[in-house]
Amino acid sequence: MIEKRPIIALDFPSFDEVKTFLAQFPEDEKLYVKIGMELYYACGSEIVKYVKDLGHSVFLDLKLHDIPNTVKSAMKVLAKLGVDMTNVHAAGGVEMMKAAREGFGQEGKLIAVTQLTSTSEEQMHSDQNIQTSLAESVIHYAQKTLEAGLDGVVCSAHEVEAIKSATSADFICLTPGIRPSGSQTGDQKRVMTPAQARAIGSNYIVVGRPITQANDPVAAYKAIYAEWNQG
Ligand code: C5P
């Protein structure tokens, strides 16, 4: 499946800024948004309830990583909030990911982070003592994620084709690091346009600042929506 709506990363520090941002969109425009650690830790579950009550879909990006029992219990809480998608670190292991699935249930999408895109191959060698290539580690974690019964992974758009061929065509690849043609890349180093991400098989794209920091966020969203769905 391909989600038509680009997921908007609500990387705001406060409830008020989220309200102001969302109020710019027409009431009947149902969005898909990403709530990450900053916003969730600042506002708690109220922010999820607020956004869900407006009729939007929520990807809660908290990247859980703990012992299986703790992750399972936490996932039960997140499922009750009605989040549409959430995630864990694949480094927590197959047992932890299975426990996450049990806790979260089958209703929403559950995906895993393989290697963070901020991790370089040298850092992976020295900090994690994983002596393969970064690409091999990403594939390994993606295969473990599939084995654990999760729906897919968060990955760089550049990794999508290799991940799909090592797992399955319907294994979800959710890709941040998306920039519309001709825009600033910010601190994202390896970016792709929405059209490129579509062409290489990404299922969901996450876009933050190109929409949230735009002079006209609604127009920016529409342009990215159109580019992602064009073809
Ligand atoms: O503003 P920008 O479009 O760069 O935001 C991308 C969002 O996706 C941010 O919330 C960022 O934390 C997240 N993300 C990312 N790269 C990853 C994983 C998550 O940029 N590999």
UniProtKB/TrEMBL annotation:
It comes from the Bacteria. Belongs to the OMP decarboxylase family. Type 1 subfamily. Keywords: Decarboxylase, Lyase, Pyrimidine biosynthesis. GO terms for biological process: 'de novo' pyrimidine nucleobase biosynthetic process; 'de novo' UMP biosynthetic process. The active site is at D61, K63, D66. It holds the Pfam family OMPdecase. Residues 5-224 form the Orotidine 5'-phosphate decarboxylase domain. Coiled coil: none annotated. The lineage of its organism: Bacteria, Bacillati, Bacillota, Bacilli, Lactobacillales. Substrate binds at residues 11, 34, 61-70, 117, 179, 188, 208-209. HAMAP family: OMPdecase_type1_B. Its EC number is 4.1.1.23. Pathway: Pyrimidine metabolism; UMP biosynthesis via de novo pathway; UMP from orotate: step 2/2. Catalyzes the decarboxylation of orotidine 5'-monophosphate (OMP) to uridine 5'-monophosphate (UMP). SUPFAM superfamilies: Ribulose-phoshate binding barrel (SSF51366). InterPro entries: Aldolase_TIM, OMPdecase, OMPdecase_AS, OMPdecase_bac, OMPdeCOase_dom, RibuloseP-bd_barrel. This is Orotidine 5'-phosphate decarboxylase. The keyword Lyase applies. One of its GO terms (cellular component) is cytosol. It catalyses: orotidine 5'-phosphate + H(+) = UMP + CO2. GO terms for molecular function: orotidine-5'-phosphate decarboxylase activity.
